[in-house]
Amino acid sequence: MALTDIDKNLLKRCLAEEPGAWKDFVDRFIGLFTHVIHHTAHARSIRVTDNDIDDLLSEVFLVLLANDYRVLRNFRGQSSLATYLTVVSRRVIVKKMVERRMAEALGHVSTSSRIERVSDEQTRQQQALEDQEEIQNMIRQLPPADAQIVEQYHLQGKSYQQISSDLDIPENSIGPTLSRARNRMRENKSRTRTL
């Protein structure tokens, strides 16, 4: 994707340090940087708090401002500005997350501090088993045709296409069936709680 006129103009204004340009830049790209933080954390099984996100955003903005906007001045316009900033921000975020992990491993930062590993594997497996049992109990209360679809989708992890092929049903009927089944299971669950 090519550099848009809007981004070209915004970049030019930032580099010329025009009043309000940096604020416009932050408003335009803060959502992108936040998405990169969430995606990177998820890929590395790291849980991030709101404070972590603020800290990582600050690190990204510091890199962009450093040495008289050197990173922005190095942009050659051979891709969209968003693509370039995604690559830059991801490098900054990964570096900071790795530094944090190393500090935790060396005992310089407690593992209960702001950036943490997602809870221990055994807890996750136990929760998955409990969830599976609950889903199986709720599936038993559905009509057989709906139950098959729910089981294949939620418990076996099959795609709509695979379910359609296995059960010889139209692919576009699976989504509505799943929605109906979820609603029915929710109703059954709330009825059980009130008993």
Explain the overall architecture:
This protein has 195 residues and is mainly α. It is 73% helix and 2% strand. It is built from eight helices and two strands, in the order H-H-E-H-H-E-H-H-H-H. The chain has a two-stranded antiparallel ribbon. Helix 1 (5-15) crosses helix 2, helix 2 (21-43) crosses helix 4 (81-105) and helix 5 (121-139) packs antiparallel against helix 6 (144-155). The longest helix is centred in the middle third of the chain and has 25 residues, at 81-105. The radius of gyration is 24 Å and the shape is elongated. Mean pLDDT is 80; it is low at 111-119.
Question: How would you summarize what this structure contains?
Answer:
The protein has helices at residues 5-15, 21-43, 50-73, 81-105, 121-139, 144-155, 160-167, 174-194, and strands spanning 46-47, 116-117.
What are the key terms here?
195 residues; mainly alpha; two-stranded antiparallel sheet
Secondary-structure blueprint:
Blueprint: H1 5-15, H2 21-43, E1 46-47, H3 50-73, H4 81-105, E2 116-117, H5 121-139, H6 144-155, H7 160-167, H8 174-194
Antiparallel strand pairs: 1-2
Helix pairs in contact: 1-2, 2-3, 2-4, 3-4, 5-6, 6-8
The coarse silhouette is elongated
Question: Which strand order spans the largest sheet, edge to edge or round the barrel?
Answer: 1-2
Q: What is the CA-CA span between the terminal residues? A: 58 Å
Indicate the structural class. mainly alpha
Q: How many DSSP helices?
A: 8
Unreliably modeled segments: 111-119
Q: Find the count of extended strands (DSSP E, 2+ residues).
A: 2
Average pLDDT, to the nearest integer?
80
**In sequence order, what are the helices and strands, one letter per element?**
HHEHHEHHHH
What is the strand content? under 5%
Helix content: over 70%
Largest sheet: 2 strands, antiparallel
Radius of gyration: 24 Å
